[in-house]
């Protein structure tokens, strides 16, 4: 296989990591909403934790994106 | 596509080339935007605290809100012992926030979208927190690698995992900020390229998407500064209050 083609395939495979980030963000917001529906008075206090969890989950997917970009542009 | 979406991250020299001992210390657009955000923060906080009114004006209100926000964040996550580190966390948070926000302006340069900048922050924090932990607790600080309530059989494995997770802190801290900024800006430019290439007929669709993405990116810019600061607080908490 040519190097250029292998790079493209590798970058595409590395971007699969974003699927995990999607699942994680969905879980965080879904669970926050269901918790907030059960106990709305406690919801406001947990909002910073929601944002923190969102950012942490999004970052793991972006690590995969960084790997893809490194394969494409750095090698 | 009109231009390469990675073109925005190019660092180029402004003014003459300065070299000291083989190290290139020239003034670049990255240094220009760092200087720009530092001056902006300075002016903003100077105007905010110039006339200390009982009924605050707009700028004073915003700067007081920022102070209260960071002070509450530190006391919530790291407790009362972290009060002396407030100036450091505050300047870290506000500098990253301003760099991210200035990066959202068209034709500007995002300083935090370069890993060397964020890695410098993160390594500084990591080394500082480690020195602080050893200075306060002595060799008892190594207890951070031994969580309480773990069966003795599992302890070696857990210890290795804890050590790896401790050592990977600067990498994850820096890559998180850098990757978010870089991915967001690349995505904006890619959708901007779609608007140009699709033209007047179908270009409206990516344009609306791109406007929505700009809103998301402003949220992310704030959020990543917040996450960076709060993770620094959590690391500080580990060093100050050894509770394992």
From TrEMBL, chain A:
It is found in: Membrane; Mitochondrion. Pfam families: ATP-synt_C. GO terms for cellular component: mitochondrion; proton-transporting ATP synthase complex; proton-transporting two-sector ATPase complex, proton-transporting domain. The keyword Transport applies. This is V-ATPase proteolipid subunit C-like domain-containing protein. PANTHER family: ATP SYNTHASE LIPID-BINDING PROTEIN, MITOCHONDRIAL, ATPASE PROTEIN 9. One of its GO terms (biological process) is proton motive force-driven ATP synthesis. Keywords: CF(0), Hydrogen ion transport, Ion transport, Lipid-binding, Membrane, Transmembrane, Transmembrane helix, Transport. InterPro entries: ATP_synth_F0_csu, ATP_synth_F0_csu_sf, ATPase_proteolipid_c-like_dom, F/V-ATP_Csub_sf. It is a multi-pass membrane protein. It comes from marine metagenome. One of its GO terms (molecular function) is lipid binding. Residues 9-71 form the V-ATPase proteolipid subunit C-like domain. Belongs to the ATPase C chain family. The chain crosses the membrane at residues 6-29, 50-74. The keyword Transcription does not apply.
């Amino acid at each position: 296989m040519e190097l250029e083609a292998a790079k493209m395939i590798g970058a595409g495979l590395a971007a699969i990591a974003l699927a995990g980030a999607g699942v994680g963000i969905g879980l965080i917001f879904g669970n926050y909403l269901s918790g907030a529906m059960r106990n709305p008075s406690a919801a406001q206090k947990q909002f910073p934790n929601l944002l923190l969890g969102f950012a942490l989950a999004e970052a793991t997917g972006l690590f995969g994106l960084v790997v893809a970009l490194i394969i494409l542009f750095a090698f | 596509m009109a231009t390469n979406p990675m073109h925005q991250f190019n660092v180029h020299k402004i003014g003459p080339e300065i070299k000291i001992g083989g190290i290139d210390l020239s003034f670049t657009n990255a240094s220009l935007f760092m200087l720009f955000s530092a001056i902006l923060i300075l002016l903003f906080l100077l105007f905010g605290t110039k006339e200390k009114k009982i009924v605050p004006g707009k700028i004073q209100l915003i700067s007081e809100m920022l102070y209260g926000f960071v002070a509450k964040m530190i006391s919530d996550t790291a407790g009362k012992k972290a009060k002396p580190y407030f100036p450091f966390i505050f300047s870290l948070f506000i500098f990253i926030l301003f760099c991210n926000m200035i990066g959202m302006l068209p034709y500007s340069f995002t300083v935090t979208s370069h890993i060397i900048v964020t890695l410098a922050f993160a390594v500084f924090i990591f080394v500082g927190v480690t020195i602080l932990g050893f200075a306060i607790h002595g060799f008892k600080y190594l207890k951070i690698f031994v969580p309480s309530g773990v069966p003795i059989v599992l302890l070696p494995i857990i210890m290795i995992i804890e050590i790896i997770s401790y050592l990977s802190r600067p990498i994850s801290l820096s890559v998180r900020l850098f990757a978010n900024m870089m991915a967001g800006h690349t995505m904006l430019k890619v959708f901007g390229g779609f608007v140009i290439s699709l033209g007047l007929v179908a270009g409206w669709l990516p344009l609306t998407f791109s406007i929505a993405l700009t809103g998301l990116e402003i949220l992310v810019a704030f959020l990543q500064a917040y996450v960076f600061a709060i993770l620094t607080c959590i690391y500080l908490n580990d060093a100050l209050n050894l509770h394992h």
